[in-house]
Amino acid sequence: xxxxxxxxxxxxxxxxxxxxxxxxxxxxxxxxxxxxxxxxxxxxxxxxxxxxxxxxxxxxxxxxxxxxxxxxxxxxxxxxxxxxxxxxxxxxxxxxxxxxxxxxxxxxxxxxxxxxxxxxxxxxxxxxxxxxxxxxxxxxxxxxxxxxxxxxxxxxxxxxxxxxxxxxxxxxxxxxxxxxxxxxxxxxxxxxxxxxxxxxxxxxxxxxxxxxxxxxxxxxxxxxxxxxxxxxxxxxxxxxxxxxxx
Amino acid sequence: xxxxxxxxxxxxxxxxxxxxxxxxxxxxxxxxxxxxxxxxxxxxxxxxxxxxxxxxxxxxxxxxxxxxxxxxxxxxxxxxxxxxxxxxxxxxxxxxxxxxxxxxxxxxxxxxxxxxxxxxxxxxxxxxxxxxxxxxxxxxxxxxxxxxxxxxxxxxxxxxxxxxxxxxxxxxxxxxxxxxxxxxxxxxxxxxxxxxxxxxxxxxxxxxxxxxxxxxxxxxxxxxxxxxxxxxxxxxxxxxxxxxxxxxxxxxxxxxxxxxxxxxxxxxxxxxxxxxxxxxxxxxxxxxxxxxxxxxxxxxxxxxxxxxxxxxxxxxxxxxxxxxxxxxxxxxxxxxxxxxxxxxxxxxxxxxxxxxxxxxxxxxxxxxxxxxxxxxxxxxxxxxxxxxxxxxxxxxxxxxxxxxxxxxxxxx
Lengths: 246, 412
Fold this sequence. Notes:
The structure holds 2 protein chains of 2 kinds. By secondary structure, chain A is of the alpha/beta class. Chain A is built from 7 helices and 14 strands. In chain A, the strands form 4 sheets. Chain A has a 6-stranded mixed beta sheet, with helices on both faces. The longest helix of chain B is centred in the N-terminal third of the chain and has 19 residues, at 10-28. In chain B, helix 1 (10-28) packs antiparallel against helix 2 (35-45) and helix 4 (68-79) packs across helix 10 (273-280). Chain B has 2 domains: 47-280, UDP-N-acetylmuramoyl-L-alanine:D-glutamate ligase, CATH 3.40.1190.10; 292-410, Mur ligase, C-terminal domain (Protein-Tyrosine Phosphatase, Chain A), CATH 3.90.190.20. Chain B is of the alpha/beta class. Chain B is globular, with a radius of gyration of 21 Å. The two termini of chain B are 39 Å apart. In chain B, the strands form 3 sheets. Chain B has a 9-stranded mixed beta sheet, with helices on both faces. In chain B, strands 12-13-17-14-15-16 form a 6-stranded mixed beta sheet, sandwiched between helices. A two-stranded antiparallel ribbon of chain B has the order 7-8. Chains A and B meet through helix 1, helix 2 and helix 7 of A and helix 7 and helix 12 of B.
């Protein structure tokens, strides 16, 4: 972490902020401030260079055309790749997750190169769009409670040998490849299909990013009352809905 | 501009009668006004019915993400200055609801029709409108609706050859792009507070520059069209440079924008702005929206806000602190089932208000407000919230089905 303040970079809100993605930045910011960790939030528009000195980078979901534009601009800029090479933390959602991979299908139906900082490759799912509540078990190495979120995507994402699934779905589609995986991660780079936003429904993910950035194993407790209530309700809802479907 | 009503064919007459019967059955069964089911039955019997019913009318279509029901009402009031109007005033805005509304308009001169964004191009093809008002486009129900720019593209393609005069908001880049393919456009500077769906050029994808009220694309040169009408504070400026005062019972900047658009529509049909605006003053509440009701001996103002742009406009019209604010959010089918949009709304604008939270998704709201650093109280139902609210008129803001729930509870 930077000596004076944690630098939280939100990438391209003008292109990739369609599903309340600002929420992830707000939750990370809030939970840092509650621990008296100074935070500087840097919103980077797609005509501005990506700073390479950030601690945590967030990249969100978006529609198909903005996704292609974002990938083109991020490849041209190169700043995010340099930041990751220096050990920066990246958390990506949906369209942003696909961009971090090696390739995805763009709005013109053609393969579009990603940034190649996460070993995943995305294709277009020919069936129905994946929409609805998701419940998944986090990868055991992360030591986190179940993942709850809302998915809304047409993509299927295959995980390559150098990445691990972020979670295994109990309810919902996740990566959509039929292997039960959801999201992916490798070292400090994370990707998920979960909206909600994902940090609001899984605040310990925000804490995980903070711990990585600060290089600590624990953080002071904060009031989890409303997060816990929301998690319990959404998990119960997803479970009941799945039971009703089967 | 209108001719004599063309007599309906026997098949069309049968369709109208069958539709009315279905609506009556639906009403009797307690399933709402029956306007949609009536239209659905009628359209099934005669698919061309919409075109036939509109044949004798001067039709105005109104579409937008926000404000279409209110603007439809304002335009209808303005045009009544020059002839009888038929309108889908209750907001049933898909082909079946529109058919049902027009079926009651055999003696009318004008048809003022609110149309769902997705159906605009198709309805415009069917009814050959004289005017089309396009107010704004922004994100709404993304789990089931089309992407916002795709809607703009759909409008652009569907309306490119229209013979209608298109009255369009020059301050919304998506609307401007959609309308700029139309042969005849009246541009109105009606404003748009919400900007987060139009940072990219709808034409080329470049980043839009937005100095002051202006906007332009630095890459392809697409820019804000020069408006001939403009909303300026409490006035609307007409093309001859006269400033007309806008006096409404409806609150807020967004309704002044709706009135400015409506005055421009009125002028297309020869209604002078003065008369149009005076007539708009009579509109008090629209399908329960903006209504002030008494409940449990308290005054409640009912405000509908369905998406981030709508919430933003609503925050700007409520009474200042310490007016109590009650927020209710559901995520049923008609609302969109994804509540992520709550995080696009800047709730810190409510700082200083006592806040009460209810609705199916009150816990999503609770986390949202907690992260915004606001004080709030989560309530089980309306009665509990109203009883807990400190003195003063309660501003009640709800999304679509939450709003319906509240009206049902209040008996309004």
